[in-house]
Amino acid sequence: MNYSQFLNMMPEAFLVLWLVVVFVADFCLMKDEQKTKKLGLITMGALICQTCLLFGWQEPQTAFGGIYVTSQMVNVMKIILTAGTLIVVIMSHTWLSGAQRNSGEFFMLVLSTLLGMYMMMSAGSFLMFFLGLEMASVPMACLVAFDKNRKNSAEGAAKYILVATFSSGVMLFGISFIYAATGSLYFDNVAEALANLSPLASHLTPLTIMGLVFFFSGLGFKISLVPFHFWTADTYQGAPTPVTGYLSVVSKGAAALTLCIILTKVFGPMVDVWNPMLWIVIVLSITVANLFAIRQTELKRFMAFSSISQAGYIMLAVIGGNPQAGAAALTFYVLVYVVANMAVFTVISAVEHNGGTTQMSSFNGLYQTNPKLAFLMTLALFSLGGIPPFAGMFSKFFVFLAAVEGHEVAPFWPYFVVFIALVNTVISLYYYLLIVKAMYITKEEHPLATFRMDGTTKLSLAICTLGICLFGVASCLYEWIAAAAL
C-alpha cells in the first residue's frame, strides 16, 4: 500500500489531527475549572483552521484506486458544513457550562461526526460511502443521548440508533443487489455497467430496480424524507438543543449532496426510474411535514417537521435535467438553511437556558422583555419561509429554477411538483408566523423575564444574522458555488 496517498486526503487527515489535539487537551485540562471555555476555544480554532485549509484545497483528488474521490463541489460543501459545525460549537458553550457535562467528549463526538460526513461525500465506492455514513451516524447517536439526566434524551437516542440500524440494513440490502447486477461497488464502474448493459434499457432489471429502491429508502431515513421520517420529531425533541441544530442542518446537508451525486452520476442511466420516485417523495415530504407542523406546540418538534419540509425543498434541485445547476442550487440552499436554522436553535437554546422551555408558550410576549432576541428570531423565520429580501427567498428561487431546467421534453411533472412546493411555501409561512404572533401579539401576564445573553450566544446570532441578510444579495457566493459545480 502506498501510504503517500493519504496526502491526497488532507482535509480528512487534518480533521483527524484536530481530533487528537482536542483529546490531548481534554486529558491535560481534566482538573481545570475553565476546561469548557478552553476546549471550546481550541475546537473553534481547529474548525477555523480547517475551513481555511479547505479554501486552499480546491483541486480534485483521488486516492487508493478511486475509493476516495473529491471535487470542487464536495470541497465547497465541506466548507459550509465545517462553518455550520463551528456555529454549533459556539452556541453550545452556554449549555455545556450550565451543568456537569464533559465538554471534551462533546467536541470529539462533533468532530468525529464531521469526519464521517467528509468521508461519505468524498466516497468513490459504495463501500467507502457506507463506512462514512456509519462514522457519522454512531457518534450522532451518542450526541443525542448526551444529556444523561433527561429521559427524553435517552429515548430519542434509542429511536435514532434503531432507525439508523434498520436503514443501514435496508441500504446494504440494496447495495448487494447493485453489486450482483453490475459486479462492482465503484461508482464509475456501476455507472458504466448500467449504461452499457443494453441500448434497449434492459438495465431496468429487477435487481437494479430493487437495488435502487432499497438504497434510496435507506438514505431517505438519514435525510428524514417522508415516508421515512417517523423518528425525526422524537429524536429532535429528546436531543439537547445544540445537538438538534447540528442534526437538522449539518447532517442533512451532507446526506443530501451525497444522494444528489449518487443519483445523477451513478444511477444516471436509470433516471426514468428514480425521477418519478423522487417527485412523489418530495411532494409528500413538503406537504405532510407542513400539515403536521401546524399542530405542534413544542418548538423542537415544530422545527423537526420544518426540517422534513426543508429536506423536500433541498431535493427539488435534483429532479432537474441539469445536474450541475441542481448541485449548485442544492449547495446554496444548504448554505442559507444552515444560518437560518442555527439562528432559530440559538434563540431556543438561549430561552431554554434563561428560565424558559421549548414550548411555544414560553415565547408569548417575548418582544416585551427581549425585543432584540424576538427580532432576530423573526428574521430567521422569515428566511426559512422564503420572504424577500432575506436569503431564504433566493435559495428557494434557485432550487425551483433548477427543478425545471434542462428537460428535453415538456416537463409537466417537474412544473407540477414546483407548483405544489410553491403552494406549500404559503402554508409554511403560516406556521412560521405562529411563532412571530406568539412573540409580538399574544398577550402574556408573566412573559419570560429580561435576560442578558452571553458572548458566545451573541456571536452565534451575529454570524447567522449576517448570513441571513447578506447571502441572498451577495451574488458572488452563488457564482462561486456554480463555478465549483462545473
Index terms:
486 residues; mainly alpha; two-stranded antiparallel ribbon; 19 helices; 2 strands
Sum this structure up briefly.
With 486 residues, the chain is mostly helical. It is 74% helix and 1% strand. Strand 1 (61-63) and strand 2 (68-70) form a beta hairpin.
3D structure, described in words:
By secondary structure, this protein is mostly helical. It contains 19 helices and two strands. The chain has helices at about 10-30, 35-55, 70-95, 105-120, 125-145, 150-180, 185-195, 205-225, 230-240, 240-265, 270-295, 300-315, 325-355, 365-370, 370-385, 390-405, 410-440, 455-470, 475-485, and strands at about 60-65, 70. The protein has a two-stranded antiparallel sheet with strand order 1-2. The longest helix has about 30 residues, at about 150-180. It is globular. The mean pLDDT is about 85.
List the helices and strands and how they pair.
Elements: H1 10-28, H2 35-55, E1 61-63, E2 68-70, H3 72-97, H4 103-121, H5 126-144, H6 151-182, H7 187-196, H8 206-223, H9 232-238, H10 241-266, H11 271-294, H12 299-316, H13 323-353, H14 366-369, H15 371-385, H16 391-403, H17 412-440, H18 455-470, H19 475-485
Antiparallel strand pairs: 1-2
Helix pairs in contact: 1-2, 1-4, 2-3, 3-4, 3-10, 3-13, 3-18, 4-5, 4-10, 5-6, 5-10, 6-8, 6-9, 8-10, 9-12, 10-12, 10-13, 11-12, 11-17, 12-13, 13-15, 13-16, 13-18, 13-19, 15-17, 15-18
